[in-house]
Amino acid sequence: MPQMAPINWLSLFIMFSIILLLFNMMNYYSFTPKLPNSKETSNISFKSLNWKW
């Protein structure tokens, strides 16, 4: 029945949107970044961070 086609497209769009959101959330929360060591952060020279206007 062609009259029911918009409902089918809408349900497919909602289903794929939910799958896309779930996939992105799983990828985002499964990633654990490495925290820098305190030795690496102490090597930053603060003189280079000043703007020379």
Automatic annotation (TrEMBL):
The keyword Acetylation does not apply. GO terms for biological process: proton motive force-driven ATP synthesis. GO terms for molecular function: proton transmembrane transporter activity. It is a single-pass membrane protein. The chain crosses the membrane at residues 6-29. Keywords: CF(0), Hydrogen ion transport, Ion transport, Membrane, Mitochondrion, Transmembrane, Transmembrane helix, Transport. Its main location: mitochondrion. F-type ATPases have 2 components, CF(1) - the catalytic core - and CF(0) - the membrane proton channel. One of its GO terms (cellular component) is proton-transporting ATP synthase complex. Pfam families: ATP-synt_8 (PF00895). It is found in: Mitochondrion membrane. InterPro entries: ATP8_metazoa. Belongs to the ATPase protein 8 family. This is ATP synthase complex subunit 8.
